[in-house]
């Protein structure tokens, strides 16, 4: 038994359900034998990693599917030991350098060198290069990105890089220009519904159209989440009904509740309560950016017209500061305080007009 | 006292010109702040009271919007009503009290006495400067006795150290610590002496054990520094004519040295100077909380052992009663807490010293010294001594007073409260940021934690601040705190420490100025706790994601957390909820599919439980499941072998921990498996394996009896199978063989503590352990 989103994940280009054009293009590039470095980006749950798997499959055949974990150990110049785990097959290695925090530059330098310096033994049978998949490239420090740009050129003969990230805005232009950028767009709601029905069919369940559409909409065009939702629905209640409760991730519910609390009452005590809840969210490893976005989305539903613009602008400003700063909670709290004062002033003036 | 803008037209009056006059202030004065005015009056010897009384009040200083009731009363009592200008005029005109030029005389004679330097310590017993004298400051300048000059080269602190019990400040009462310690020490040999039979000792009850001092073989004196704990201990011993040995932080106090030094003295008898063998002596362990670092390792534990074995009373002294390392010690000690004496008590004894030294310090200055030294008698005497030596005449709130004030180590809570309170309203910008520099790492956190709780006061008292106004202030303060955070980021990332003062302004001074008002209680910043909690969760999440990474479709842990976590927990928990025992198989199957360990299951449950402010919300879904099912789940999970791709074995590390091989075992194993295997045959071995982060604890336990994989086995791939579950007792059999019954039992205990065995199984396991061990014997 495993989760459907893992069970029915496509492994080759032919199995892909959407963006056939792009798939065809990729297939052609890869099958020509040689290809440049890739930079694959797009929102989460759109299928970036699936496409990478497809590329690898196309390149090396099914050998890439026998995966293993490897543990590497490095020593920093200061003498500190760092460990990093990589996933890989004989042909490729997947690394997440941001696992080691600010020491990621070292990982880039060491691992890529290590892998790139050894050539493939049997070049006749296989490709002349290996593939390194770097994920979360947008989380890399500037130092690491600069280290990467040199290595990319130097070892191009023996290895190819596939970079994977959510947004290219934090990838330095020097790297972007060295790669073939491929955007994997999130599937449309219609596409998700079709896939959901298809998967339900595999599992020999009957998924009504309306429920499929509702789930697709709830999922925020995140295919992975949509599949997980369907599966949870299936375990909760089968046969499906159209008005069935769709289980949303717990943190989303919690976050929405927090935003509602802020919009409901504007007092210093409320800020304290909100602070507790924000701490709870942060300590559950929910990134501050996600919290920010969720808060704003929910808060905007209570605002109208001019206020919407104002609040959004404020949020943008505070999020910008949050990224520059260190302690996330400070900025989240400052945003809530600012929202409260703006919102309350607006409400009071509206009330005043009412009585005049 | 340094105002940001200092008034220039305040006249300099003669010293003591307002002496004996009592003022009452009402309303807003023209140029002086109320506090300023109070200080001014006090400076010249006057007094300021809140309410008017018929007999005592001399003047009412009336400003703008003065209270009507006060004015009426003043008129009724025939009290003179003046305004601010009159007051200043008074200061200018009134003659001062005759101030005597004591300083010159006293210092001169002191200088001469140093030259003569007659160190007649033998005669020191003649002089008994008392800490508790009734003398007041009717100073007589010319009086200078030759007796005190004999010990002039000593510091005052040592010179006037109490030599009798009744000289100790603030320890006179029936129930004072001194008396308690006396009676405890006096009765000690009655209850713990060599002749007392074991069965006479009473059972220690868990509560109110401190009521009965006879139970304890040691006493623990605790309290802030400089109030006479060590002196008390020494004097009590002297009083009871018991010789004592003192050890303090300057002596090395590790386990070893304690054993060597102290245990000798504990069991030995004492040979006094008069050649009579005295059995009773006392060990004073000073500064027990100061034991730290590698040198003192195990010191406290050894001390506890000593107390248990001791034939003599032990007195331990520490500052911080709540410290972690003291806590274990405190269980064995008679707890005596010293508190700061009241400033009146200190004042009288200080005055007597000053009198003996022929120094005059005014009452109000003395008050301030005592306050600024935090009632630390030792420091007060030091401060007085310092002024005496520096020979500058003392003025009220002079600069030297400020120096002392700064030297006081302020508590961060107190600092934070001070920053928010209106006390600091009159401080200059520099002084306000000084509060930040006391601890520039912690202060911003304290400010951030507490600024929301401050109730800001408006300029006029009658108008209550509206919520909007308060929110506005909060928002501004929060903005400023954000800027402070940005500054700190730049400081730490680019080492640009010149920004530190800006950070101080943004993260401490501005929020405090905006939110100035009253605080109920200063809270400790939660950020620190939350930060470590977050880090722990990140670590667990990384581990979890690593385990599952071969199966899942995402490549980063954040996505894994956001998308998978909740549904994963549902998938795991639903079968248990719905089907109970029958669901266990399903749950384990699922875990195996994703290569999850039992710890991972806990992590998932922890990550999906939310605290929504209610007490009941703390428990997660997993905990709500019937404990029987959980127990079975654990047991079933441990029974089976699980293939894990992530148990990566580091050969280098394993080589280090190899033990000399057990020959017999190898032969057997060879026959069985055709491979060379080694046997890790000690439980401590297993512990060391455990240090290897890659090997899970539970498995480490099993490995202790099974085998270290050989190269060939490693080559076979990352999949490693655990050996079948061995019976518990067999794990230890081999390691135990040469050892005694006790150590074997100890191992058993360790095993039970370390393994995930459920509580209801423990007794049987212990029994099993007993059986096996006795068999081995």
Question: What labels describe this entry?
Answer:
heterodimer; A: 356 residues; alpha/beta; Rossmann fold; Zinc Finger, Delta Prime, domain 3; 3 domains; seven-stranded mixed sheet; 14 helices; 7 strands; 12% strand; globular; B: 777 residues; mainly alpha; 13 strands; disordered N terminus; DNA replication (chain B); phosphoprotein (chain B); ATP binding (chain B)
What does it look like?
- The complex is a heterodimer of chains A (356) and B (777).
- Chain A is of the alpha/beta class and 356 residues long.
- Chain A has three domains: 4-183, P-loop containing nucleotide triphosphate hydrolases (Rossmann fold); 189-236; 250-355, Up-down Bundle (Zinc Finger, Delta Prime, domain 3).
- Chain A contains 14 helices and seven strands.
- Chain A has a seven-stranded mixed beta sheet, with helices on both faces.
- In chain A, 40% of the residues are buried.
- With 777 residues, chain B is mostly helical.
- Among the domains of chain B are: 22-93, BRCT domain (Rossmann fold); 157-192 and 212-339, Rossmann fold, CATH 3.40.50; 344-391, no CATH class; 412-524, Zinc Finger, Delta Prime, domain 3, CATH 1.20.272; 546-639, no CATH class.
- Chain B contains 33 helices and 13 strands.
- In chain B, the strands form four sheets. In chain B, strands 6-9-10-5-11 form a five-stranded parallel beta sheet, with helices on both faces.
- In chain B, strand 7 and strand 8 form a beta hairpin.
- The longest helix of chain B has 28 residues, at 467-494.
- The radius of gyration of chain B is 36 Å and the shape is flat.
- Chains A and B meet through strand 2, strand 3, helix 9, helix 10 and helix 11 of A and helix 18, helix 20, helix 21 and helix 22 of B.
């Amino acid at each position: 038994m495993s989760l459907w989103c893992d069970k029915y994940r496509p492994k080759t280009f032919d199995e892909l359900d959407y963006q056939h054009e792009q798939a065809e293009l990729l297939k052609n590039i890869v099958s020509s034998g040689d290809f440049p470095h890739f930079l694959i980006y797009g929102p989460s749950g759109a299928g970036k990693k699936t496409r990478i798997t497809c590329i690898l499959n196309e390149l090396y055949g099914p050998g890439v599917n026998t995966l293993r974990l490897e543990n590497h150990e490095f020593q920093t110049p200061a003498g500190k030991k760092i460990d990093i785990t990589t996933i890989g097959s004989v042909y490729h290695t997947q690394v997440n350098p941001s696992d080691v925090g600010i020491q990621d530059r070292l990982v880039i330098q060491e691992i890529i060198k290590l892998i790139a310096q050894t050539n493939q033994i049997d070049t006749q049978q296989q490709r002349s290069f290996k593939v390194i998949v770097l994920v979360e490239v947008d989380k890399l420090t500037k130092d690491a990105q600069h280290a990467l740009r040199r290595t990319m050129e130097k070892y191009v003969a023996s290895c190819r890089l596939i970079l994977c990230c959510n947004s290219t805005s934090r990838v330095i232009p020097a790297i972007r220009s060295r790669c073939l950028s491929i955007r994997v767009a999130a599937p449309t709601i219609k596409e998700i519904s079709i896939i959901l029905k298809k998967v339900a069919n595999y599992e020999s369940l009957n998924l009504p159209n309306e429920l499929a559409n509702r789930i697709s909409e709830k999922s925020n065009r995140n295919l992975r989440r949509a599949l997980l939702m369907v599966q949870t629905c299936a375990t909760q209640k089968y046969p499906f009904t159209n008005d069935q409760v769709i289980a949303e991730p717990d943190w989303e519910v919690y976050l929405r509740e927090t935003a509602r609390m802020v919009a409901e009452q504007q007092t210093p005590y409320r800020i304290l309560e909100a602070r507790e809840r924000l701490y709870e969210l942060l300590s559950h490893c929910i990134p501050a950016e996600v919290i920010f976005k969720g808060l704003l989305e929910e808060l905007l539903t209570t605002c109208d017209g001019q206020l919407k613009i104002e609040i959004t602008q404020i949020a943008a400003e505070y999020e910008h500061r949050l990224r520059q700063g260190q302690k996330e909670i400070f900025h989240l709290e400052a945003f809530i305080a600012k929202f409260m004062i703006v919102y309350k002033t607006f409400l009071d003036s509206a009330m005043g007009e009412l009585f005049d | 006292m340094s105002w940001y803008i200092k008034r220039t037209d305040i006249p300099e009056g003669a010293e003591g010109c307002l002496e004996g006059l009592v003022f009452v202030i009402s309303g807003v004065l023209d140029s002086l702040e109320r506090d300023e005015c109070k200080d001014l009056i006090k400076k010249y010897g006057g007094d300021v009271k809140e309410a008017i009384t018929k007999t005592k009040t001399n003047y009412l200083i009336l400003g703008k919007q003065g209270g009507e009731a006060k004015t009426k009363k003043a008129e009724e009592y025939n009290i003179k009503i003046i305004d601010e200008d009159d007051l200043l005029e008074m200061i200018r005109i009134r003659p001062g009290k005759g101030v005597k030029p004591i300083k010159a005389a006293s210092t001169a004679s002191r200088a001469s006495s140093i030259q003569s330097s007659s160190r007649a310590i033998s005669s020191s017993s003649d002089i008994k400067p008392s800490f508790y004298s009734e003398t007041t400051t009717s100073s007589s300048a010319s009086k200078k006795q030759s007796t005190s000059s004999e010990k002039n080269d000593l510091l005052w602190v040592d010179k006037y150290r109490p030599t009798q019990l009744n000289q100790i400040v603030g320890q006179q009462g029936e129930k004072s610590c001194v008396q308690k310690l006396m009676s405890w020490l006096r009765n000690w040999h009655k209850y713990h002496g060599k002749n007392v039979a074991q069965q006479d000792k009473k059972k220690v009850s868990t509560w109110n054990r401190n009521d009965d001092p006879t139970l304890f073989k040691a006493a623990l004196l605790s309290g802030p520094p400089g109030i006479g704990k060590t002196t008390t201990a020494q004097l009590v011993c002297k009083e009871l004519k018991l010789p004592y040995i003192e050890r303090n932080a300057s002596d090395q106090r590790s386990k070893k040295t304690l054993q060597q030094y102290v245990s000798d003295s504990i069991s030995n008898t004492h040979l006094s100077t008069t050649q009579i063998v005295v059995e009773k002596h006392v060990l004073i362990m000073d500064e027990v909380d100061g034991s730290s670092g590698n040198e003192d390792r195990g010191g406290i534990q050894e001390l506890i052992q000593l107390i248990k074995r001791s034939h003599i009373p032990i007195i331990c002294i520490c500052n911080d009663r709540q410290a972690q390392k003291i806590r274990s010690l405190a269980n064995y000690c008679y707890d005596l807490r010293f508190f700061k004496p009241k400033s009146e008590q200190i004042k009288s004894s200080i005055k007597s010293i000053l009198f003996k030294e022929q120094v005059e310090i005014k009452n109000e200055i003395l008050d301030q010294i005592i306050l600024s030294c935090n009632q630390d008698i030792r420091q007060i005497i030091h401060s007085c001594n310092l002024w005496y030596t520096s020979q500058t005449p003392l003025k009220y709130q002079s600069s030297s007073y400020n120096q002392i004030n700064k030297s006081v180590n302020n508590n961060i809570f107190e600092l934070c409260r001070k920053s928010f309170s209106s006390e600091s309203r009159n401080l200059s910008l520099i002084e306000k940021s000084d509060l930040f520099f006391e601890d520039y790492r912690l202060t911003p956190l304290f400010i951030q934690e507490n600024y929301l709780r401050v109730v800001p006061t408006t300029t006029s008292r009658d108008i209550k601040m509206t919520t909007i106004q308060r929110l506005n202030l909060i928002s501004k303060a929060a903005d400023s705190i954000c800027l402070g955070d940005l500054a700190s980021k730049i400081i730490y990332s680019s080492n640009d420490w010149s920004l530190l003062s800006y950070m101080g302004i943004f993260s401490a001074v501005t929020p405090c100025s905006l939110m100035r008002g009253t605080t109920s209680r200063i809270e400790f910043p939660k950020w620190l706790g939350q930060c470590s909690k977050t880090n722990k969760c990140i670590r667990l999440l990384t581990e979890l994601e690593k385990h599952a990474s071969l199966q899942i479709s995402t490549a980063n842990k954040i996505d894994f957390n956001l998308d998978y976590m909740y549904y994963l927990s549902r998938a795991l928990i639903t079968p248990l909820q719905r089907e109970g025992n029958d669901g266990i198989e399903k749950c384990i199957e699922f875990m195996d599919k994703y290569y999850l360990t039992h710890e991972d299951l806990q992590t998932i449950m922890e990550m999906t439980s939310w605290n929504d402010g209610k007490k009941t919300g703390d428990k997660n879904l997993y905990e709500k499941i019937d404990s029987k099912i959980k127990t079975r789940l654990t047991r079933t999970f441990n029974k089976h072998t699980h293939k894990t791709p992530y148990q990566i074995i580091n050969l280098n590390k394993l080589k280090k921990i190899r033990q000399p091989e057990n020959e017999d075992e190898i032969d057997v194993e060879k026959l069985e498996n055709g491979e060379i295997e080694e046997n890790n045959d000690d439980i401590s071995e297993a512990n060391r394996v455990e240090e290897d982060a890659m090997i899970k604890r539970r498995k480490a336990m099993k490995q202790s009896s099974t085998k270290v994989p050989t190269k060939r086995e490693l080559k076979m791939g990352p999949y490693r199978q655990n050996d079948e579950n061995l019976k518990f007792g067999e794990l230890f059999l081999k390691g135990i063989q040469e050892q005694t019954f006790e150590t074997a039992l100890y191992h058993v205990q360790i095993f039970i503590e370390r393994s995930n065995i459920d509580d209801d199984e423990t007794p049987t396991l212990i029994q099993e352990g007993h059986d096996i061990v006795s068999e081995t014997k």
